[in-house]
Amino acid sequence: MARIAAVTPDQAGLMVKATYRYAARRFGSVPEPMAVFAHHPRLLMAFGLSETAVERASTVLPANIREIAVYRVAWTVGCSWCVDFGAMLQRLDDLDVERLEHIADYETSPLYSDDERAVIAYADAMTTTPMTVTDDQVADLQRRFGNKGVIELTYQIGVENQRARTNAALGITDQGFSTDSCRVPWAESTS
Fold it and tell me: What is the model's pTM?
């Protein structure tokens, strides 16, 4: 259970209720980070607008490249919610989610392409403290994906670091998106 209880629909204002309806239609359930962020409706709105803008702007990289980098960040940080949601996004993009079980062995696993290995290593270098990104890594990624691709990848990894660290700090855990058995985040508090 999250360290801060989710805002239930009966506690929510009109804007938050509308946000919940949209999210439930889009994802099958209200994502718990949204329900926790609903305590601060203006930040919830900023979060939603930012996520929508990033999603619409991220058109350069193939889905498998973007999603595996984001997933690796979530896995590295230890955000079970982000891992769960990321696995669902990969499934919805018709990507091989079974290989995610082998993400720890990406360097030697035949389940990952050379491009995927390069972006996972970059995600690791950006996520570690202090960062260990090298000029050679960036140059390699430029050859693979161009400047726009490197910018998109870097931004996606940075955003996922923010998401994963925020959710982990708030104690938000997996919700069942990757298994299609979503629970309603406030159900436990009303039963």
Answer: 0.91
Q: Radius of gyration (Cα) for the chain, nearest Å?
A: 17
> Mapping DSSP to helix (H, G, I), strand (E, B) and coil, where does residue 111 land?
coil
Contact assessment for residue 61 and residue 145, using Cβ atoms and an 8 Å cutoff: yes
CA 20 to centroid of chain Cα atoms: 19
Instruction: Count, in order, helices (H) and strands (E) of the chain.
Output: 8, 0
**What is the CATH class of 63-169?**
mainly alpha
Q: Which of 57, 60, 68, 81 is nearest to 123 (CA)?
A: 68
- Domain locations along the chain: 9-57+182-190, 63-169
Torsion angles phi and psi, residue 18, rounded to 5: -65, -40
Q: Do 9 and 177 contact (CB within 8 A), yes or no?
A: no
Give, in degrees to the nearest 5, the angle at Cα 166 between 164 and 170.
115
What does the alpha-carbon distance between residue 30 and residue 59 come to, in Å, rounded to a whole number? Answer: 25
* CB of 36 closer than 8 Å to CB of 23: no
pLDDT tens-digit map of 78-111: 999 999 999 999 998 899 999 999 999 999 999 9
Instruction: Let me know: does 142 contact 61? Beta carbons within 8 Å.
Output: no
- CA distance linking residue 175 with residue 48, whole number of Å: 19
Question: Which amino acid is it at 63?
Answer: A
CB 60 within 8 A of CB 34: no
